[in-house]
Write a structure and sequence with these properties.
two-stranded antiparallel ribbon; 38% helix; globular
């Protein structure tokens, strides 16, 4: 398993991370033996980053990951979790963040997490579930820093969702060490300019900002919540089709556009859309590690096989770019 230096942290993370989210569902609703077997297989294959959150099954993902890691006792794994502040708690950020983290540490059976990611969207002025740039920089980041000092966390992270300009501003402030960034074959705008009138949120080359700031990147939504399988069918333990983030405004539209990328498979660049999507996400040097959700041990094996093939060749990237041109002007 290839390891990549993760921003300015000095950590070396496996290019394939282990996503413990609710969309795939394995670590929330899966069989306990499957959870243990899959994590053991991942560790044996060289996967060293495990990503979870309080919100994944109301703590079930953290509990299950903690149980398995305590039993296996692997050396040198990196664990990231998240905190999401409800609107009612924005006046007491320190207490809310601290309480959330203590609950996470208890469920994970750890004394420290390596990365604590803010899970709220970030916009210029906040509102609803979103936090404003000033709330993030003036309240949240200092609260995280106060948890780093006694060793509760090692690194400060954010989830790069919200308004593009606000995300650039927060990353440019250089207070966060990690950013979870949407990047997939339907929306490559974190890396490159989109064609005119392209139906997706434009992240305006966010990787330029992360690289300039020394921020490590965790690739998220690399399979667009499952849409990049090209199939609407979902495994029984998988979560419902998620609200798309950064791509189309409907999951069905994402599936439709995914199917229109099939020439990539027909021309021999990859054996499946999910393989192509996984390898695409690894193709940019700014990417530290990618998260692929899973419902079954076999889905992890598929992700591992794709990652071990390495990034897509330039000819495949060029072909993808040409295919995406047809999406321009379509409604999002």
């Amino acid at each position: 398993m290839q390891l990549r230096v993760f921003g300015r942290t000095g950590m070396r993370l496996s290019v394939l991370g282990f996503g413990c989210g609710a969309v795939g569902g394995l670590m929330v609703r899966g069989d306990a033996a499957d959870q243990e077997r899959t994590i053991a297989r991942a560790i044996a294959a060289g996967v060293n980053y495990f990503d979870t959150a309080v919100q994944y099954g109301d703590g079930e993902s953290e509990k299950n990951l903690g149980r398995v890691l305590q039993k296996l006792k692997p050396a040198d794994v990196v664990v990231g979790t998240k905190v999401r502040l409800p609107a009612s708690e924005t006046g007491r950020v320190d207490d809310a963040v601290g309480t959330s983290l203590e609950g996470s540490l208890t469920r994970l059976r750890l004394e420290q997490v390596d990365i604590l990611h803010l899970h709220n969207p970030i916009t210029e002025n906040g509102g609803g579930s979103a936090l404003s740039v000033r709330q993030v920089l003036d309240d949240v980041a200092p609260a995280f820093e106060r948890l780093r000092q006694p060793g509760k966390i090692r690194f400060l992270g954010m989830t790069a969702l919200g308004d593009t300009a606000a995300l650039h501003q927060v990353i440019g402030a250089r207070v966060f060490d990690s950013a979870q960034v949407v990047y997939n074959v339907l929306n490559p705008s974190a890396a490159c300019e989109l064609p005119a009138r392209y139906p997706a949120q434009d992240y305006a080359r966010l990787f330029d900002a992360t690289q300039a700031a020394g921020v490590g990147v965790v690739g998220i939504r690399v399979l667009a919540g499952g849409a990049l399988s090209g199939s609407a069918e979902r495994h029984p333990i998988a979560g419902p089709a998620p609200e798309p983030i950064g791509s189309a405004m409907s999951y069905d539209a994402d599936i439709d556009r995914a199917r229109r990328l099939m020439p990539l498979i027909e021309e021999g660049f990859a054996t499946s859309l999910t393989e192509a999507a996984t390898r695409f996400a690894l193709s940019h040097p700014a990417m530290g590690t990618i998260l692929v959700g899973m419902a079954t041990p076999q889905q992890f094996e598929d992700a591992l096989a794709a990652a071990e093939k390495g990034p897509l060749p330039q000819a495949a990237l060029d072909r993808l770019s040409a295919l995406r041109q047809a999406f321009s002007g379509e409604p999002r």
